[in-house]
């Protein structure tokens, strides 16, 4: 027997808005945290990841106690708690939307912001374009990109024999799911596709983005709360795709010869028994979009299964994000992107309030991200207060900081490299001091009641 709560319409709406607000913020932070934690093992094999982080425990806060990175050329440019290009690209979409006060989703504006990022980094945060992927870099640097982004991406894909299906678009499209909470499902699929083909024209990339974006939308709207709902979204996306493809052919007849979507392969990644089936550290397919897509959906399924039991639902909800993300990144591979997408899904499902504090509070640009998340919530009608994206200088294409000349960029890179050297020297000294202290303790313990062997 179910009991109906005697709440007024006003109380029900307030409760729904509060939950949606928590999930919107949770989605953005969950993704950024997955990205930041994933950097610890990005591009490592699972075995190397386990040898590099024996405790398999990570902390970002307090920052003085943050887990140090494995020392190598890939991680040396970053400090713990920083997100990567994955979240930067998502921020380009978010800032574009905020700048229009939520009135417009403009793919051309996003393409322009992506072009700016490749040359100057994220201007709003004055950061460099670290971690630029080959696919995005090649396409965005093309002379035709700004005027014809989709066509440029399609030519690049066809020049590679239509074989490239990297994860560079699925990692950035989670903000679209938030922007689409007032859109229909078909509109959501189409918007996700429109943003994917800016750089990723392969059908596998498009369907991954469409499903991922629709899942975020449904999770925030509280319409997706069990595995059957996940499968329904996948089925509806598969039904939608042929109509989308026909529209593409009508717009550009050359699309008729493009490969069909392999539904068997898609469905294999929609339902996996465990993460090892995905072979996430297969270096020949490390950035394959279905690996990111499959791992994210698998983690969402695991979270839903864990929350089935009413006896432990609350305690599980408060603790499950960390072990799921940790287990994912310990598989190695493109760990930051995999955890970025999975973190967005989990954050949209679990909410911001239950994200681990020793991760959440150590996010380097956390305060900045919170302001943007709150602004978005207001524009979507679920947050309190007021917000004007037009008046928020951060949302301008130049981030309110102006443009950098080539010489200024060179100087910025030199200063960054000098800071890297300084941080490396400081870490050398710290590690040397720790070795001395360990040696002293060992010597003292050996001399206390010890005997010659």
From TrEMBL:
Pfam family of the protein (one): ADP_ribosyl_GH
Cofactor binding, per record: Binds 2 magnesium ions per subunit.
Family matches, as InterPro entries: ADP-ribosylglycohydrolase, Ribosyl_crysJ1, Ribosyl_crysJ1_sf
GO molecular function: metal ion binding
Biased composition range(s): Basic and acidic residues: 423-436
Gene3D superfamilies for the chain: ADP-ribosylation/Crystallin J1
UniProt keyword annotations, A-Z: Magnesium, Metal-binding
Residues covered by region (Disordered): 423-453
Cofactor(s) this protein cannot do without: Mg(2+)
Binding site for Mg(2+): 84-86, 334, 336-337
Domain of life from the UniProt record: Eukaryota
PANTHER family assigned: ADP-RIBOSYLGLYCOHYDROLASE
The name this protein goes by in its record: ADP-ribosylglycohydrolase
